[in-house]
Amino acid sequence: MATQHSRSAARLMMTPAVILLLGWMLVPLVMTLYFSFLDYRPLRGAFDCCVGFDNYVRFFTSSSFWPSVLTTLQMVGGVLAITVIGGIFLAMLLDQPIWGQGVVRILVIAPFFVMPTVSALVWKNMFMNPVNGLFAYLWKFFGLTPIDWLSELPLFSIIFIVSWQWLPFATLILLTAIQSLDGEQLEAAEMDGAGVVNRFVYIVLPHLARAITVVILIQTIFLLSIFAEVFVTTGGSFGTRTLTYLIYQRVIESQNIGLGSAGGIFAVILANIIAIFLMKIVGRNLDR
């Protein structure tokens, strides 16, 4: 049992790391908050201190704000649906004894280690290019007209690219959960006459509930900041401008640091609201 002295020593040794971590997180946040109350446009030489909540009102009432929020939520929802459903079936497939199982698992997990920018470039130029892409050649082979994916189906294309990156993560978490399932329980259900569908619905799926909520929580936190895939593929055109991309446009393209900072604070608040909501769901599942 730890003594008071050892606990005090542990706190003392952890203090530098905690201070560094808090500084790493709080300094950029405080600076963003500070800039959000300024009319700061470097290229125009504007620096007006203390404009109050003008930047927040302008960003919130902008015609681009709610469409960008809706696009962000659509992307997050679409990616979560594909990765969770696809991850369950892939995890169940990888749990079966097959030849070269270790190699197959490595190949399935590999996309998660590809940088988002590289992944988006590969999909844009190698697969979705309407002239020289692999999908175009496949369409022509079957006598069909190739699709310009990023112009005709831009939102679906980005969702598909991001899902390809995050599917391995969901598969890995869900595979670990499936492997912890008691095989005797499934065998007993099979002996009682339960079919494959009933075993999946009443045994496997409830067992995966905790893992699914963890996957949704972690992925949602990261997916709310989708940027690289949008930047590389459509540049925010065709209705694919997310909230983070809108902030980028305000800060970099418009050079309005104050307005972009206000948007950044909005994004932080939105992410925290969703994270708290999801944490409550995860907490309920973990308590069961």
Provide a descriptive summary of the structure in words.
By secondary structure, the protein is mainly α. It folds into 2 domains: 1-26, no CATH class; 36-287, Orthogonal Bundle (MetI-like fold). The chain has helices at residues 4-35, 54-60, 65-94, 101-109, 116-127, 134-141, 149-152, 154-179, 183-191, 196-207, 209-223, 228-233, 243-253, 257-287, and strands at 39-41, 46-48. Strands 1-2 form a two-stranded antiparallel ribbon. A hairpin with a 4-residue loop joins strand 1 (39-41) and strand 2. Helix 2 (54-60) crosses helix 14 (257-287), helix 5 (116-127) packs across helix 8 (154-179) and helix 11 (209-223) packs antiparallel against helix 14. The two termini are 29 Å apart. The model has no long low-confidence stretch (mean pLDDT 83).
Stated plainly, the CATH topology of the largest domain is called MetI-like fold
Tell me the CATH superfamily of the largest domain. Answer: MetI-like
Category from helices, strands and their pairing: mainly alpha
**Mean pLDDT value:** 83
* Unreliably modeled segments: none
Radius of gyration: 24 Å
Query: How many H/I helices?
Result: 14
Helicity range: over 70%
N→C terminal distance? 29 Å
Short synopsis of the structure:
By secondary structure, the chain is an all-alpha fold.
Summarize the SSE layout with pairings.
Blueprint: H1 4-35, E1 39-41, E2 46-48, H2 54-60, H3 65-94, H4 101-109, H5 116-127, H6 134-141, H7 149-152, H8 154-179, H9 183-191, H10 196-207, H11 209-223, H12 228-233, H13 243-253, H14 257-287
Antiparallel strand pairs: 1-2
